[in-house]
Specification:
With 408 residues, the chain is an alpha/beta fold. It folds into 3 domains: 8-76 and 83-164, HUPs (Rossmann fold, 3-Layer(aba) Sandwich); 178-295 and 337-357, Argininosuccinate synthetase, chain A, domain 2 (Alpha-Beta Complex), CATH 3.90.1260.10; 367-407, no CATH class. 44% of the residues lie in helices and 20% in strands. It has helices spanning 17-29, 47-57, 68-81, 93-111, 127-138, 147-150, 155-164, 240-253, 278-294, 297-316, 322-334, 365-368, 378-388, 390-407, and strands spanning 8-12, 33-40, 61-66, 116-118, 143-145, 178-182, 185-189, 219-226, 229-233, 236-237, 258-264, 270-276, 340-347, 350-357. The strands form 3 sheets. It has a 5-stranded parallel β-sheet, sandwiched between helices. A 5-stranded antiparallel β-sheet has the order 10-9-8-13-14. The chain has a 4-stranded antiparallel β-sheet with strand order 6-7-12-11. The protein starts with 7 loop residues before the first strand and ends with a helix. Bound molecules: arginine.
Length: 408
């Protein structure tokens, strides 16, 4: 068996089978002491129970950290300002949580003078990449241990190991899917979902109604932004966590935010994922609409490129890469005028924009109208088009002359 490589390990603990087995396995093979940390990102678990369970298995310390506010304000809302969506439509709920969890683990490792951090990821997914890269960036001296990447146990073998060591195995029937949940969204994979030809069964979903069971009447929702940050819903001010919870409810009720996706994992695998992100999808739609209202064309088209890069960096686990700070500087500056209100109409899974308003709107009805009150100078269009197409016109003249010369 491998010799112990650490004295004290901080373990990201979820209370599930794998990380419970990991506590014992780490003590057996890797270290002398395990500090468990369970982090609340709005996944709705009973974290006190989980905290106690870690101690019964053998952890020397067990901590619960409520990180919901930091998650929404410092991670999700930054992502929103960047219209972050991986490969067009995944709002990155799971990916955004990982650097924050890593940061908390590193802080706790310092507090307890631990020399290693452990997480429950396997060797096939993106999350191992995100944890390892984040820990590496925050403290390159910490060792990283991923028991499930090393031990090579099947689920049955893990259960056997748990029985042998008196680790309580969750008694509730295990979901056929692998679920990751937080305030920004829910990710599901495994089971029947691995067959990309099969429509996901209804029992995959946990945050949204189906379009069929959503209300037959459309619902309108008005979202107010200040400098790119959502601050009110239907005119009522909300704190960040409550705002996201309220929009998850409203959008989820109207079947908004279901995403069935084939995506490219960092490790090269194409995988099929079912996401739900009611609030994130709604906010994303409204935020983008507001940007189109207040930004110049140059600004918007440049920012679109940057947004895509930003999303990719989140997905790949490069949250703590120095480039992100530089991009944030640009993005924050770009949000100075992203203030206003967008009203959306929700109906059985569809979102349409009903109205937009901003003190910084660049939409000028006087310039746009085809009716009375037109302020646009039609004459200047003629000269503009002449110059705009000058080279193309010259090209046409030259090509025609060339064709005539060939015929002769
Ligand atoms: N593929 C997604 C991502 O990499 C979600 C992974 C979620 N994990 C899960 N156990 N369902 O961000």
């Amino acid at each position: 068996m491998s010799k112990k490589i650490a004295d004290k390990v901080v373990l990201a603990y979820s209370g599930g089978l794998d990380t419970s087995v990991a506590v014992k396995w780490l003590l057996e093979h890797k270290c002398n002491e395990v500090v468990c940390v369970a982090i609340d990102l709005g996944q709705g678990q009973e974290l006190e129970e989980i905290q106690a369970k870690a101690l019964t298995i053998g952890a020397s310390e067990s901590r619960v950290i409520d990180a919901k506010q930091e998650f929404i304000e410092e991670f999700c809302f930054r992502a929103l300002k960047a219209n972050a969506n991986y490969q067009e439509n995944y709002p990155l709920a799971t990916a955004l949580a990982r650097p924050l969890i890593a940061k908390i683990l590193v802080d706790i490792a310092h507090e307890y003078k631990a020399d290693a951090i452990a997480h429950g990821c396997t060797g096939k997914g993106n999350d191992q990449v995100r944890f390892d890269l984040s820990i590496m960036a925050l403290d390159p001296n910490l060792k990283i241990i991923a028991p499930a990447r090393e031990w090579g146990m099947t689920r049955e073998e893990s259960i056997e190991y748990a029985d042998k060591h008196g680790i309580p195995v969750p008694t509730s029937k295990k979901s056929p899917y692998s679920i990751d949940l937080n305030l920004w969204g829910r990710s599901a994979e495994c089971g029947i979902l691995e067959d990309a030809t099969v429509e996901p069964p209804e029992d995959v979903y946990g945050m949204t109604k189906s379009p069929e069971s959503a209300p037959d009447k459309a619902e309108y929702v008005r979202i107010s932004f200040e400098k790119g940050i959502p601050v009110a819903v239907n005119g009522k001010p909300y704190a960040p966590i409550e705002l996201v919870e309220e929009l998850n409810r409203i959008a989820g009720d109207n079947a908004i935010g279901r995403i069935d996706k084939i995506e490219d994992r960092v490790v090269g695998i194409k995988s099929r994922e079912i996401y739900e992100a009611p609030a994130a999808v709604l906010l994303g739609k409204a935020h983008k609409e507001l940007e189109y209202l207040v930004m110049t064309k140059n600004m918007k088209s440049f920012k679109n490129l940057l947004d895509e890069k930003y999303s990719e960096m989140i997905y790949q686990g490069f949250w703590f890469e120095p480039l992100r700070d530089c991009m944030d500087a640009f993005i924050n500056q770009s949000q100075e005028h992203v203030t206003g209100e967008i009203e959306l109409k929700l109906y059985k899974g569809s979102i349409t924009v009903a109205s937009r308003k901003s003190p910084f709107s660049l939409y000028d009805k006087g310039l746009a109208t085809y009716d009375k009150g037109d302020m646009f100078n039609h004459q200047s269009a003629v000269g503009f088009i002449e110059l705009f197409g000058m080279q193309m016109k010259t090209h046409a003249v030259v090509s025609k002359a060339e064709k005539l010369a060939v015929k002769k």
